[in-house]
Design brief:
alpha/beta, single chain, about 450 residues, Rossmann fold, about 20% strand, 8-stranded mixed β-sheet, about 45% helix, 16 helices
């Protein structure tokens, strides 16, 4: 159908998105395929194409640029390259593998949409393993940049984002993390975006959960990096604000894998509290990535630590490593372990993507994998809208595109810092179901109403 057949709101949308052209008349004079690019943007914004999922077809060969009706070459390349910086090994290995798959699924779906719409474009992803190591993350970003990659999904850890942000900002590389939550990285007007709320809200959620469980004395133990320090401090402050005795427990090094000293210190502190106040009023909040599994393995050797409630964070929630560990999984059940992670309520797009993940991985992914899927669509949509593979232009238009985007994770509204503006926290626990340990949905904490809804 020619563009001229569109009417009403659709045409108004097209005009508003054609601002990168000199005037509306020029838009109407463009060739059919160039017009289709803008129509694709409209379809994505109104939710027709977002989350589009059909069987991918073979990529079609295409010239490197698009030619307009006036014979001018478009600055939009036919192959849109999106890099991926994910921890395929290290302390976030399970989560990194899930996010890597999410980016690949999104690229397949976007390319299927392009092919079925007759658009001469293709998304290509180049994924690198950060090893959950900030220094490696920087090396891998530099490698991507040397290949001409200017848009990157990831990294996942806040320590990685912090270490690459200087290089990214200096070289105008747009970074879009699905899971970095450190409040210290909530900075306006840079090239770092995050499709997740920062940890000031998670600190509130953890403290409120401890209060709901009736805990009066809570020991916080945490991973010694920027993310861990910020979330631990936020949690301690929120606990104290609720009148809960907030105790600073051991801060462990991310460079070690044996936590004998820290676990012994924690056991001594918890034992003293239990002797004074009773086990039912004492709890432990573990701020960790998947190394928390080893910490729990060693903690299981102390009966005192097995007798109090434990709470975890988004760094370990829904970890396949935890439920696959014969010691940590049993310990999690004994301690009524629950963990918080931001997410969205299920919707048809979410459910469809979940089925595809389960078919390939055998399990449901963490919510951050869904963020990565939406990030691929948001980046592609913003590049199309800008009309160039240009981070400077895309960084300016991305917040507007996100405000009109409803993907598998719901509304993608960003705040003034380029971070997701709103989110709820889901609570997951570990259960033994027919002699198999698995994560189970427990409930949700609504940050807007400060209320829990339990299953």
């Amino acid at each position: 159908m020619p563009i001229s057949h569109l009417k009403g709101r659709e045409l108004i949308y097209i005009y508003s998105l054609a601002n990168h052209f000199s005037h509306q008349r020029r838009f109407m004079e463009m060739d059919y395929k160039t017009q289709l690019v803008i129509v694709a943007v409209i379809m994505l914004l109104v939710g027709i194409a977002a989350g589009y999922a059909v069987k991918p077809s073979a990529p079609q060969s295409a010239p490197n640029t698009t030619t307009t009706a006036q014979g001018q070459q478009s600055k939009l390349p036919n192959v849109i390259v999106i890099g991926g910086l994910f921890p395929l090994s290290g302390d976030l290995q399970t989560f990194g593998q899930q996010n890597s798959l999410a980016l690949q699924l999104a690229a397949s779906d976007i390319n299927s949409f392009f092919n079925s719409s007759g658009l001469p474009y293709q998304v290509k992803v180049v994924i690198e393993d950060t090893q959950t190591n900030p220094d490696v993350a920087l090396q891998k970003l530099q490698s991507l940049y040397s290949q001409g990659v200017k848009f990157v999904a990831g990294p996942m850890a806040s320590s990685e984002v912090k270490n690459i942000m200087g290089f990214a900002n200096s070289n105008h590389i747009l970074i879009f993390s699905p899971s970095s939550t450190s409040p210290a990285l909530a900075i306006p007007n840079d090239f770092i975006f995050r499709l997740v709320v920062d940890d000031r809200l998670q600190g509130t959620a953890l403290a409120q959960l401890a209060k709901y469980y009736g805990l009066k004395h809570v020991v916080v133990v945490w991973r010694g990096d920027d993310w861990g320090d910020n979330l631990a401090n936020s949690t301690l402050s929120n606990l104290a604000a609720l009148g809960i005795d907030a105790i600073r427990g051991p801060r462990y090094s991310v460079q070690v894998s044996d936590y004998t000293s820290e676990v012994n210190q924690l056991a001594s502190t918890v034992s003293s509290l239990v002797n004074k106040y009773g086990a039912s009023s004492v709890g432990v909040i573990l701020v960790s990535f998947e190394e928390g599994v080893q910490f729990m393995d060693q903690a299981s050797q102390y009966q005192t630590l097995s007798n109090v409630r434990w709470i975890g964070t988004d760094g370990i929630a829904k970890s396949g490593k935890l439920i696959g560990d014969p010691v940590a999984s049993v310990f999690a059940v004994k301690t009524n372990f629950t963990a918080t992670i931001s997410g969205t309520l299920p919707n048809p797009k979410y459910d469809n993507l979940t089925k595809r993940f389960v078919a390939q991985l055998g399990t449901e992914p963490i919510s951050y994998a869904y963020n990565t899927y939406d990030i691929a669509w948001l980046l592609t949509l913003s590049i199309l809208t800008a009309g160039e593979y240009n981070p400077d232009k895309v960084a300016k238009i991305l917040p507007t595109v996100a405000s009109d985007f409803y993907g598998v994770t719901g509304w993608a509204q960003l705040n003034e810092n380029g971070d997701r503006a709103f989110a709820n926290y889901f609570i997951y626990g570990v259960a033994n179901v027919q002699n198999q340990y698995q994560w189970t949905y427990v409930g949700m904490y609504d940050t807007a109403t400060n209320a829990f809804t339990f299953k």
